[in-house]
Amino acid sequence: MTERNSAPSLSRIQQKNRELILGGALEAFSAGGFRGATIDQIARHAGLSKPNVLYYFTSKDEIHKALLTSLLEMWLAPLQRIDPAGEPLAEVLAYVRAKLQMSRDFPRESRLFAYEILEGAPHLTEILGGGLRQIVDEAAAVLRRWMAEGRLAQVDPHHLIFSIWSMTQHYADFDVQVRAVLGPGRDPLNEAAAFLDALYRKLLSP
């Protein structure tokens, strides 16, 4: 379904209201997933009326898809910043740090994406099989070239990327569990940064 207000002629107020709606949707969807959220909840979190929300988006499904699409773009941006002309190990470690920082800065967004994947990604099927695959394949090709040149140790590049996703996003998606195990007075993400740097440095050094 096409968003009503995707045209570039949005006024400043319209853009602000759209951002308020997506912010309210993030609160609602990250708390209860797609099924647990309602338009009324989204409107309440956004500080707008339900008719106002429905002026900008025709349905809960449309709001959810818009939010997930923008989230996926943000999530993939660090992967696209890997520089093929850069120093391989430094580029990979920078990507790990960027993903870990996103878990610190955007835990609700990470949990929302996890909800969608666990439900079979009904709102992201086309994107996951198209744009996501292309971006990951392009990054994997760069990693594979570096490995062929002897500049990184030989590992499966796709599974390397998957491992970075799981090792970093775990700290957002399972924050309560991590903090319960570590106990008070510790910073899981600072500790994770040192651990993951050592782990991937050892794994990938040629």
Note down, in words, how this protein is organized.
With 206 residues, the protein is mainly α. It folds into two domains: 12-63, Orthogonal Bundle (Arc Repressor Mutant, subunit A), CATH 1.10.10; 64-204, Orthogonal Bundle (Tetracycline Repressor, domain 2). Helices cover 76% and strands 0% of the residues. The chain has helices at 12-36, 39-46, 50-56, 60-80, 88-105, 107-118, 125-148, 157-173, 175-182, 188-204. It is globular. The N and C termini lie far apart (48 Å). Residues 1-7 have low confidence and may be disordered.
Question: CATH superfamily name of the largest domain?
Answer: Tetracycline Repressor, domain 2
Task: Tell me the name of the CATH class of the largest domain.
Answer: Mainly Alpha
**How helical, in percent, are the residues?**
over 70%
Strand content: under 5%
Q: What Rg is obtained from the alpha carbons, in whole angstroms?
A: 19 Å
CATH architecture of the largest domain: Orthogonal Bundle
Q: Return residue spans where pLDDT drops below 50 for at least 5 consecutive residues.
A: 1-7
Assign the CATH topology of the largest domain.
Answer: Tetracycline Repressor, domain 2
Q: In whole angstroms, how far apart are the ends?
A: 48 Å
Give the number of helices. Answer: 10
Overall geometry comes to: globular
- SS elements, strand count: 0
Mean pLDDT: 88
Give the helix/strand class. Answer: mainly alpha
Quaternary organisation of the protein chains = single chain
For the sheet with most strands, the description reads:
none
N-to-C order of helices and strands: HHHHHHHHHH
Query: How many domain regions?
Result: 2
